[in-house]
Amino acid sequence: GENVEQHPSTLSVQEGDSAVIKCTYSDSASNYFPWYKQELGKRPQLIIDIRSNVGEKKDQRIAVTLNKTAKHFSLHITETQPEDSAVYFCAARPDSSYKLIFGSGTRLLVRP
Amino acid sequence: DTGVSQDPRHKITKRGQNVTFRCDPISEHNRLYWYRQTLGQGPEFLTYFQNEAQLEKSRLLSDRFSAERPKGSFSTLEIQRTEQGDSAMYLCASRGQPSTDTQYFGPGTRLTVL
Question: Which residues pair with A64 in a beta bridge?
Answer without folding.
Answer: A57, A75
